[in-house]
Amino acid sequence: MATVELTFSALPAHVRTARLVATAIARRTGVAEALLDEVRLAVGEACSRAVEAHRVHCPGEPIRIELRDDSGRFEVTVTDSAPNDDLQSPGTANGLVSVEASADSMFGIVPEMPGLGIAVIAGLADDVEVSPGPTGVRIRMSWPAATPNGVPAH
């Protein structure tokens, strides 16, 4: 199990770097070539959402990304530090929010289309978990990767 951690300041230019790093690590981990565009786009959406939240609420705080290859999965977790005082998550367990609930209630950053970024991520990643807290949101995404013998995991 290898883990790479990145932190970056809330600047849109750093989203591109995060996408490039995620794609390179996904390729090294054995994610199918056909899924690499989905990895790049999903990571870009999650990081763009975090950058916008930070620019509004806490521009001096870094955004954190963790990239892991564990148990035949490539997993990316994007964590922001923007406050979520008004976050509503009825009917959730253990602080986890379903993608549908998060799209409806969490992300009014782009008022015309709240939750669009989470909906896009859900369509791109194999598995998505959104965990809101009072001091940030954690978005975990994962895709199947090759097992140690080189066979893709399902």
Automatic annotation (TrEMBL):
Domain Histidine kinase/HSP90-like ATPase: 8-143
Lineage top rank: taxon: Bacteria
InterPro entries, alphabetized: Anti-sigma-factor_SerPK (IPR050267), HATPase_C_sf (IPR036890), HATPase_dom (IPR003594)
Short name of one Pfam family: HATPase_c_2
An MF annotation (GO) of this entry: protein serine/threonine kinase activity
The entry's keywords: Kinase, Serine/threonine-protein kinase, Transferase
Protein name in the entry: Anti-sigma regulatory factor
Record organism: Acrocarpospora macrocephala
